[in-house]
Amino acid sequence: MSPRLPFFRLSALVFGFAFLYIPILSLIVYSFNKSRLVTVWGGFSTEWYVRLFSNEQILNAVWLSLKIAAVNATGAVILGTLAGLALTRMGGFRGRTLLSGMTTAPLVMPDVITGLSLLLLFVAMEQLLGWPQGRGVTTITIAHMTLTLAYVTVIVQSRLSTLDDSLEEAAMDLGARPATIFFVITLPIIAPALLAGWLLAFTISLDDLVIASFVSGPGSSTLPMVIFSKVRLGVSPDINALATIMVALVTLGVVIAGILMARREARRQRDIQMAAG
Amino acid sequence: MRDLPACRWVRTRLLHQGTGGRTAVIAVPYLWLLLFFIVPFVIVLKIAFSETQIALPPYQPLLYWTRDRVLEIKLNIGNFLFLLEDDLYWKAYLNSIKVAAVSTLLCLLLGYPMAYAIARARATWRIILLMMVVLPFWTSFLLRVYAWIGILKNNGLINNFLMWMGVIDQPIVMLQTDFAIYVGIVYSYLPFMVLPLYAVLEKMDLTLLEAAADLGSRPFRSFLTITLPLSMPGVVAGSMLVFIPAVGEFVIPALLGGPDTLMIGKVLWTEFFSNRDWPVASAVAIALLALLVVPIAFLQRSQRAQEGRF
């Protein structure tokens, strides 16, 4: 189709992306600002980065959040893969609709409700069973896994449903056990989806303030909780430095993933052309 | 001997080898979600009907044994009556709906042209542009909301710029207003609007537009009569994906809104963390959930329709 409204479309993109990226750019620029007054330019300085790396409270919170995020992502990928398999490869079973509903509802549930309800569960469980004792890393991880397994399920489910299952059927006809089929055939094919799910679960856990605030206990303040309490008191430049580091890491990751995907796509196109020619 | 139950059980087990694995694949996520997603709601419902007491946990049990070994249920609808009586809750409730609805509309106005432009861009550009839409989503939500404090405050980026340009003498108060909350929600949830819209616009059959053009229809009219109706599933899905979380949003009103900004998510947070009133917080959660039933049903219907179509 010929570009009929190029001006309109171009301005929509320019305006939209300016809106999306100017706030992020402002964080980056002002993280190098010497002045404490965030919006007055006082010259270039890396002072806030030095301050950030000597702030023990933030460093501890970063470490705690990374640990929770990694354990959570791994658990969520395992549970989400099982749920995705159950919904796509197990045919009909009793309660399938309920399982499907339970894996999509957490995606849209407001965080305040999820957080409150899980806290009330943990309190009730502690009264009845004596576990979990108090609240902290364990309860935050369980809460995050419940939330993020839903995201993994959606990704795995959509990958499995577009996947041609003739390979799996062929293996079954040749007498392979279901577990063998899964580990030898299905798992390698859905591995990119699992990686995407792991990264998404990791990011969501690293980013969650509300649910973690409800289910955490004394001494287990995650990074978002520390940031939130600092930010509430006003703008602080070391948070700008932290944001810049996070943006840099994410951009790097996305660019690498993009290059890998583009290469794979190029190879696939070449294979298709060779097969056709 | 053959008909002993134990033998029959072993035989069926052996015949259905692999059933164990199948059951486990279904049962593990099933039990997890029942325990950590469904049971919590039952508990919230239970506590919403119980009375506050100063203890830990700060509520009274619903079920208890009386002296004559009779199980008594004490349902207390006082918490819900309290929500009805105190107009704070009503206002928060209505204001949340208003804020979410306005933000959804603004998101649609900004997101639709973007999704349209991306869907009609060249194939190589599409992937890059889509990645640029999603990229901010991967960086911290909290930090992106925080970035707007520096932009909107009285001596922030916008006011400094406008005063430097000489457009204004006095800073415009933008932070701690509803405007700031709209900006924050639109900014945070824009990818959720653009992606479903892109999905429907990209799959659209462009020959329909060519046919309309051949028959003499102007581009704008073709858009109104063909493109817009065909993209309705994306409009509904995107709007619900923005509206539902926006109603219960806490972080954005807490950081960008004023101290008297009333939103239901913030009220729930205050009830729980400041007032330590668990039963009232639970009642607020139930009320919020009831509000969201209709949009969630809408979302699921539009998703089913999309699955059926493609």
Automatic annotation (TrEMBL), chain A:
Pfam families: BPD_transp_1 (PF00528). Keywords: Cell membrane, Membrane, Transmembrane, Transmembrane helix, Transport. CDD domains: TM_PBP2. It is a multi-pass membrane protein. GO terms for cellular component: plasma membrane. Residues 62-260 form the ABC transmembrane type-1 domain. Its main location: membrane. One of its GO terms (biological process) is transmembrane transport. Signal peptide: none annotated. It is found in: Cell membrane. The chain crosses the membrane at residues 12-32, 61-87, 107-125, 137-160, 180-202, 209-229, 241-262. Belongs to the binding-protein-dependent transport system permease family. CysTW subfamily. This is Spermidine/putrescine ABC transporter permease. It comes from Steroidobacter denitrificans. The lineage of its organism: Bacteria, Pseudomonadati, Pseudomonadota, Gammaproteobacteria, Steroidobacterales.
